[in-house]
UniProtKB/TrEMBL annotation:
It is a multi-pass membrane protein. Belongs to the binding-protein-dependent transport system permease family. HisMQ subfamily. GO terms for molecular function: transmembrane transporter activity. One of its GO terms (cellular component) is ATP-binding cassette (ABC) transporter complex. The chain crosses the membrane at residues 24-48, 60-82. One of its GO terms (biological process) is amino acid transport. Keywords: Amino-acid transport, Cell membrane, Membrane, Transmembrane, Transmembrane helix, Transport. The keyword Transmembrane helix applies. Gene3D superfamilies: MetI-like. It comes from the Bacteria. Its main location: membrane. It is found in: Cell inner membrane. This is Permease component.
Amino acid sequence: MIMNILFETTADGDLYINWLLSGLYWTLGLALSAACLAFILGVSVGIARNSRNLLVAILGRLYVQVFRNVPLIVQMFLWYFVAPDLLPSTWGDAVKQLGPPWGSFWPALICLSLYTGPPVSG
């Protein structure tokens, strides 16, 4: 009975199961992309934190402290709503005009990569 609703059509003629599979596709794509970028960033920052160059080590530690101590939901809001307004106007407008799902994919990818990088760095 409950499973039958997945195969009913929506108002635009698509099936509910297709919506769910599309969401799964985008979620897995975002998670894998963010994990790869976070690994690269985390290894780089981990090397920087152990650098003999004092400035590089301080910048690595600062990055870890900032992104580890700011909650994920706050970072999501900042990357989605604030960051496009900080860009030059032509870039900010281009980012805001990206249609779904790309308009939310890129801020989420940046946010998840930066948030997940510090635990990888050690």
